[in-house]
Amino acid sequence: MLPDVYISDTPEAAALAVAERMFAAAKVKTKLSLPFNVAVSGGNTPKLLFNLLATRYVDSFPWHFVRLFWVDERCVPPVHPESNFGMTYETLLKHVPIPDQNIFRMIGESDPQKEAKRYGDLLLNQLPVKKSLPLFDFILLGMGDDGHTASIFPNQLELLDALEPVAVATYPATGQKRITLTGQVINAANQVAFLITGSSKATVLNQILRREPGFEKYPTSYIHSANGSTCFFIDKEAGNK
């Protein structure tokens, strides 16, 4: 089944559309007095979303029901400028009342293999489990110019089918180690939302969404929620093909 694609005029409007989708999903769980388990990505694009959540939604989002996890993390300390947790803390966590006990960061400064095992066990203990997979309510993803998502790169497609919920990946350009959710966990989520902006993503995104020849080499093309919905929220620049 093809994903839903929403094209906005600007990156900010695309981020707002994702915020509205998250807000609606969180309210459903809150009405049931259940936690809203969400995993977020790092990078530059989510900053737009986090800034919106920390301003426009600061007083309306059910923050005390949010349990926040990460899709991936660079193997650096949280104060490092490349830390996904650090970026999320500065743009979102400093400004909203998510209880400390509801924040589950990947420890980038730990040994990568040990941290992947620890975080995988944590997910299995903290989240509902179905068919041995931890179940998220909502996963926020981005996409790199090379078609990667999370920290699953085109030369590491085996991570899409890994049995472990969390694995160690290697960024091809620099050899940097990263911790990442694996493909089966991402696809088990109730909702998966991609936030993709910028013309540099347009050619690859078009190839993936239209299933044009060669799309199989891009990790993003394998992401599809088995339990709910997969949506692409993009701006005009990313959708110009």
Summarize the structure.
This protein has 241 residues and is α/β, with parallel strands linked by helices. The chain has helices at 11-31, 45-55, 84-93, 112-126, 183-188, 202-209; strands at 4-8, 36-40, 66-70, 72-74, 129-130, 133-134, 138-141, 166-170, 177-181, 191-196, 229-235.
List keywords for this structure.
241 residues; alpha/beta; Rossmann fold; 6-stranded parallel sheet; 3-stranded antiparallel sheet; 6 helices; 20% strand; globular
Describe the protein's architecture and organization.
The structure is a single chain. With about 240 residues, this protein is of the alpha/beta class. The protein has one domain (about 30-180, about 190-215): Rossmann fold (3-Layer(aba) Sandwich). Helices cover about 30% and strands about 20% of the residues. The strands form 3 sheets. Strands 1-11-10-7-2-3 form a 6-stranded parallel sheet, with helices on one face. A 3-stranded antiparallel sheet has the order 4-9-8. Helix 1 crosses helix 2 (about 45-55) and helix 2 packs parallel to helix 3 (about 85-95). The radius of gyration is 17 Å and the shape is globular. It starts with a strand and ends in a 6-residue tail after the last strand. The mean pLDDT is about 95.
